[in-house]
Design goal:
single chain; alpha+beta; 105 residues; 5 helices; four-stranded antiparallel beta sheet
Length: 105
Amino acid sequence: MRCAECKGKGLCGLPKCPIMQRFYALTNEKPQSEYMGPSPSVFIGSSGYPRVVGGPLLLRESDTPTDWITRGLGMEEIVGIRSRTIRGSQPVKTVLDKAQEVALS
């Protein structure tokens, strides 16, 4: 993808730059001390294996790409949804039971 080369300067020829869309989507979110919401997914990282991190993914909207297609969302809306995803992370050994509990709920 050319976006990594031009760093948001619009040289890729796309009508809207995905990098800048993600930046603007992130600026709309206000930091909070606690986040509440459904947790339909669990994230387990791979960086630093075997000491990986994992935790729940908190979403305000659907995390199903087929739902995005049926709703007719454009790239800007999809980038916004993915940018607003909050990922909790702790060492996996300490959250394994909690992650399994979230997955079963």
